[in-house]
Amino acid sequence: MSQRVAIVSGGIGGLGTEICRHLAGSGHVVIAADLATRSERLAAFRAETADLAAQIEFAALDIADFDSCAELIRSTEQRHGSVDVLVNAAGITRDTTLRKMSQDQWHSVLTVNLDGVFNLCRNAIDGMCARGYGRIVNISSVNGQTGQFGQTNYAAAKAGMHGFTMSLAREVARKGVTVNSVSPGYCETAMVMQIAAEIREQIVAGIPVGRLGRPSEIARVVDFLAAADSGFITGANIPVNGGYFMDF
Ligand code: CAA
């Protein structure tokens, strides 16, 4: 069988980069899709994935733009034959209390973090169903499960993502397509490093494992869900948070 093809949105970001590395390591052709404007980050990404350059390519994508998502899916199917795995890892924060939040801060987070999932899934789903195979993994957040001070926008998007995941999982289960979410806790990424040190230290103190997560600890779960033999897991949310939030 030819190599499976994976698209990772937010592919050059903190979690995205490691997800690309893991998927390439398990034999996928990987398209890291991200804003072309992140030129410094792109150079760093190319250096961090140099050993896997033959399997990972970069594609410019504005996840907020439906047509840009349609074009990415179309061109990938044309060049590589299919989109077998879709990882929605693009995400932004605009943290502030609701009392100070502007409409723009609300809309930008909802547009990237939630509309972006619709934009890519809507364009990828017909091909996956027609081919009878697909793995969709949505990167949500522990804060979508618990809420977080200063994150009404982000937590709403991340919780919404899981409602989307469960609904789509039901719709496409009989077509060989699984849809799951992974809810990372606080990890060693630029996004988490933006939090004021004092607040971050308080958060880390509340993590039973006693440290931030490593992006590779998220990526290996994504790779697991993306595997062909994970076909009986669908509509699930896998928490990877160092024990920060436990439920069942
Ligand atoms: N808990 C309780 N009270 C808090 C607080 C907190 N975390 N942060 C601030 N306050 C208090 C302030 O002391 C202040 O009190 P007073 O009015 O009595 O002075 C009041 O709440 C308002 O505070 P600010 O004016 O500072 O509020 P703000 O609108 O500027 O925003 C904040 C504060 C920057 C959002 C800050 O609360 C914060 O950094 N929160 C954590 C956000 C966070 O965890 N983001 C995660 C980013 S990483 C990520 O999202 C990845 C992932 O999935 C895990």
Automatic annotation (TrEMBL):
GO BP of this protein: monocarboxylic acid metabolic process; poly-hydroxybutyrate biosynthetic process
Which InterPro entries does the entry link to? Acetoacetyl-CoA_reductase, KR_dom, NAD(P)-bd_dom_sf, Sc_DH/Rdtase_CS, SDR, SDR_fam
User: SUPFAM superfamilies, per this entry?
Assistant: NAD(P)-binding Rossmann-fold domains
Record keywords, A-Z:
Oxidoreductase
Ketoreductase domain location? 4-185
Q: Which GO terms describe its cellular component?
A: cytoplasm
Provide a Gene Ontology MF annotation, just one: acetoacetyl-CoA reductase activity
* Pfam families recorded: adh_short
Q: Out of the domains of life, which is the source?
A: Bacteria
The family line of this record is: Belongs to the short-chain dehydrogenases/reductases (SDR) family.
* Protein name, per record: 3-oxoacyl-[acyl-carrier-protein] reductase
Source organism of this protein record: Tahibacter aquaticus
